[in-house]
Design a protein that fits this description.
With about 290 residues, the protein is of the alpha+beta class. Helices cover about 30% and strands about 25% of the residues. It is built from 6 helices and 11 strands. The chain has helices at about 20-35, 80-95, 165-175, 225-235, 240-250, 255-270, and strands at about 5-10, 35-40, 50-55, 60-65, 105-110, 110-120, 130-135, 145-150, 155-160, 185-190, 195. The strands form 3 sheets. It has a 5-stranded antiparallel β-sheet, with helices on both faces. It has a 4-stranded antiparallel β-sheet with strand order 1-7-9-8, with no helix packed on it. It has a two-stranded antiparallel ribbon with strand order 10-11. The longest helix has 17 residues, at about 255-270. The protein is globular and about 55 Å long. About 40% of the residues are buried.
């Protein structure tokens, strides 16, 4: 069997080791107010994804711009609001304090309203691996099993992911936002040891749509850190708070209510969720 295909990651970092919040605020200002110039297109994406340069008051950066006009209709999500869901996911990520999603804003651009997100250059040399296919029936130490996958006619391999604190935080975030598309290609390890998740347009549905490769902790107790974060989200999402007001601008009232219910359910159960059985648990393609 060929060597396992792996998605590299950097070393585990302390949860307090975040990008300076002031810098993140500066980045969102740059994204929201900067002059946006389209440089190219990410062609393998299912929706229009434009690679851009952005500049404002002497500061420059690269970013992704996803115009609403370039969104493909989905049977189970309303048309024309995937960009807002991406911004909503960023707002929740920031509220957790984990900073798992790159700075993201909603703004006008060359092709109308769309999501604009800071470009993160993934570093394939940033350390160990996050995902792997192995021939063993059980994962090695430091790995979590996901699913037994057919890799060739009559041959199977076990898909595993790293038992990594950053991935575990992302698994909690995905459960909160009801992420319907956590693929391996949506994990971006950076050279500074951080891990980012991208592509959250199919999130916040009122029905259970969680599809992910991060099922390795299913049924296991949430970490004390995660419980603290969920308790904080409960307060931050209460009626009349700035976060609740902001979320009401980005998702529907029913979706906001479902978001609060998911946070409450996670706290009540005290464990990572398991596949519901009513929706495909693994995204396709997985990478």
């Amino acid at each position: 069997m060929p060597a396992p295909e792996r998605i590299p990651a950097g070393p585990v970092t302390d949860p307090t080791d975040r990008t300076d919040p002031t810098d993140r605020t500066d980045r969102t200002t740059l994204l929201a107010k900067g002059d946006l110039t389209v440089v190219g297109q990410v062609r393998e994406a299912s929706n229009a994804v434009l690679y851009c340069e952005i500049s404002h008051e002497g500061e420059t950066a690269t970013c992704v711009y996803k115009p609403v006009a370039g969104e493909q209709p989905l049977w189970d999500f309303p048309d024309g609001n995937l960009a807002r869901r991406e911004v909503a996911a960023y707002e929740i990520s920031e509220a957790t304090g984990w900073g798992l999603i790159p700075p993201t804003v909603l703004r006008d651009g060359p092709y109308g309203e769309g999501m604009c997100q800071l470009w993160i250059e993934g570093d394939p040399q940033a350390g160990g691996a996050l995902l792997a296919l192995v021939e063993d029936e059980e994962p090695a130490d430091g790995w979590k099993p996901v699913v037994l996958a057919e890799v060739a006619e009559g041959r199977t391999a076990l898909l595993v992911h790293a038992d990594d604190a950053r991935l575990r935080r992302l698994a909690v975030l995905d459960a909160v936002i009801n992420n319907g598309d956590r693929k391996g290609g949506h994990l971006l390890p950076s050279g500074d040891g951080r891990l980012y998740g991208i592509d959250h347009g199919v999130s916040f549905h009122t029905e259970d749509k969680l599809r992910t490769l991060l099922w390795g902790w299913a049924g296991e107790p949430l970490t004390p850190e995660a419980v603290d974060v969920l308790n904080r989200l409960t307060s931050l999402l209460a009626d009349g708070t700035p976060l609740a007001t902001r979320m009401a601008e980005l998702i529907t009232a029913a979706e906001l209510a479902a978001l609060r219910d998911r946070v409450a359910s996670l706290l009540a159960s005290g464990v990572h969720p398991s596949p519901s059985g009513q929706w495909p648990a693994i995204p396709w393609p997985p990478v």
